[in-house]
Amino acid sequence: xxxxxxxxxxxxxxxxxxxxxxxxxxxxxxxxxxxxxxxxxxxxxxxxxxxxxxxxxxxxxxxxxxxxxxxxxxxxxxxxxxxxxxxxxxxxxxxxxxxxxxxxxxxxxxxxxxxxxxxxxxxxxxxxxxxxxxxxxxxxxxxxxxxxxxxxxxxxxxxxxxxxxxxxxxxxxxxxxxxxxxxxxxxxxxxxxxxxxxxxxxxxxxxxxxxxxxxxxxxxxxxxxxxxxxxxxxxxxxxxxxxxxxxxxxxxxxxxxxxxxxxxxxxxxxxxxxxxxxxxxxxxxxxxxxxxxxxxxxxxxxxxxxxxxxxxxxxxxxxxxxxxxxxxxxxxxxxxxxxxxxxxxxxxxxxxxxxxxxxxxxxxxxxxxxxxxxxxxxxxxxxxxxxxxxxxxxxxxx
Length: 398
Ligand code: HGY
Ligand code: MN
Ligand code: MN
Description:
It contains eleven helices and 15 strands. By secondary structure, the chain is an alpha/beta fold.
């Protein structure tokens, strides 16, 4: 029996408040850091499970640690709405979590109306790839074929789950009518065009590498400059070369966001420097050409400086187009389209089910930072667009 629906602004304010509650579950007391299956993820699961149960959703945790709530429908067909609840270090409160909270707000906004399909809201356990430098573990488990060994499998066991059962998380794609992910834009576009929402037409591909420079540690005071094989100086020269290449390549972003010097002492010449490379472009051939050029530059710098250079590829994710039919449906409520520079679980699920994303404006274009925020009226607009998308799908499957 349908009840009077809550005003969308109230649903939005509740979703924002819940994101802030979840932001309190962190690995440290100085900010929000919640990586793959780390201890605070238990508190996250408890809070979200409670909210799901209050909406009469059937809740379970799959073997990779995705928290999954199903709102029953009038058939076995299923619409999935989801995003991730792991974070980067010193994160904002809305990257990932908002997409899960909007999923719950949409179920709440139905006011007990049953649709001709179930709604499954999924909180993915690992999208960022911080803890093990392996992103998208949660959504990859739904696609199938994910096998975890070593430390990653142990992290699953430590969380109280069984890595041998990860395969059970695989979707039966034949009954899934689509995947919809709401997410903050994390960039400046919607603010520049002064719009609250966008439909994501495609998600840019990305490459991630771990690169190690190996020189010779030695005494900072007694080793003449001409006798050094300084790993950190070699890495530093390469970091600037990465920036220079991206600056002259239209549409390319390339970042070295992490650097670790060993033995990391001010009076010791670094014997080793480990850096992380992140390269993205909408066109895969431009991205892959740039990756080759950057790695060749690393090798050249190493050769000239007598420093060894080695790398391992951590991710080679192609650009993914979102589903044209779902884009057209979403555009009825949100007439603005854009490409995502950030990666999302939707780019993984798009391999097996029709997928689409809706972006919510990021004030200041800030993300992966504690100042990340959203406006309640923009989240209310996202909930309104989501509810009309649900009704359009209900008409189609009635
Ligand atoms: O880095 C990204 O693309 C996203 O935040 N995982
Ligand atoms: Mn992120
Ligand atoms: Mn995200």
